[in-house]
Amino acid sequence: MSEKSVSQATDAVPEPSAPTSAVSTTADPTTTAAGTGGPAPRKSRLTLNKGALTAVLAPVIACAVTLGALTAWTASGAAGSPAEPTLVDARIMLPSNPEATAALFNLTNEGGADDALVRVSTPAKAGRVMLSRNVHENGVGTMQMVSAASLPAGGKLEMSATGLDVMVENPPPMRLGERVPFVLHFRDSEPMRVNALVVRPGS
User: Fold this and answer.
1) How many degrees, rounded to 5, is the angle at CA 12 between CA 7 and CA 16?
2) How far is residue 200's CA from residue 2's CA, in Å, rounded to a whole number?
3) What would the DSSP string read from start to end of 75-140?
4) Neighbouring C-beta atoms of residue 6, cutoff 10 Å
5) Do residues 29 and 39 make contact, with C-beta atoms less than 8 angstroms apart?
6) What is the Cα gyration radius of the chain?
7) CA angle, 122 as apex, 116 and 126 as ends, to 5°?
8) Which of 51, 77, 159, 185 could bridge across to 119 with cysteines, CB 3.0–4.6 Å?
9) What is the C-alpha to C-alpha distance for residues 203 and 194, in angstroms, rounded to an integer?
């Protein structure tokens, strides 16, 4: 009974038929797309390649620009160099009273690292010497002590009688045109000895 059933099932298998026209409907990559005049698959592949090329070139161009800037900075000799404070001018106001006066120092930093002026001293016979800043609030001027004044790489530090200055308590006797010695102390650089010219207030 089983063998017969197998035989009948075998007889029922249809014979392979000849290829029909359905085979010809398979898309040929070289076949021209209807109404486009060009091969559609190749056009899609070209569009994809352009997008991929743009995605790759964008970071490459950005890196090239950054590298160019770093090369220019290195070529200038500033990259990696230490701070180099340089004095532009030094003045001290002729005091109108013997209790206090102000000294002003203008500096530049020719080096490639930031620095800061942290303290000022004088070998002359005087009282306290300290960094201070004049602050005006609600029409009232007050003086605030400053722990340090920044001197950025390639930048400058400028003092004025109405802003950052160096207050000198009980200054030594002085006359116009004389020079008073000071020592500028920096966070990273070596101390700098300077002579401040005695000038009239407001000069």
Assistant:
1) 120
2) 128
3) HTT-TTPPP-EEEEEEEEEPPSSTTEEEEEEEEEE-SSS-EEEEEEE-SSS-S-EEEEEEEEETTE
4) 10
5) yes
6) 42
7) 130
8) 185
9) 19
Distance between CA atoms of residues 200 and 94, nearest Å: 5
> Is 70 exceeded by the pLDDT of residue 73?
no
Paired tokens of 147? 């722990």
How is residue 189 annotated by DSSP? Answer: S
Q: How far apart are alpha carbons 132 and 128 in whole angstroms?
A: 12
pTM across the whole model: 0.61
| Residue type at position 203 | S
**CA 171/CA 37 separation, integer angstroms:** 95
Coil, helix or strand for 143? strand
Q: What is the pLDDT of residues 38-56, one digit of tens each?
A: 555 555 454 545 555 455 5
What would the two tokens of residue 21 be?
């026209």
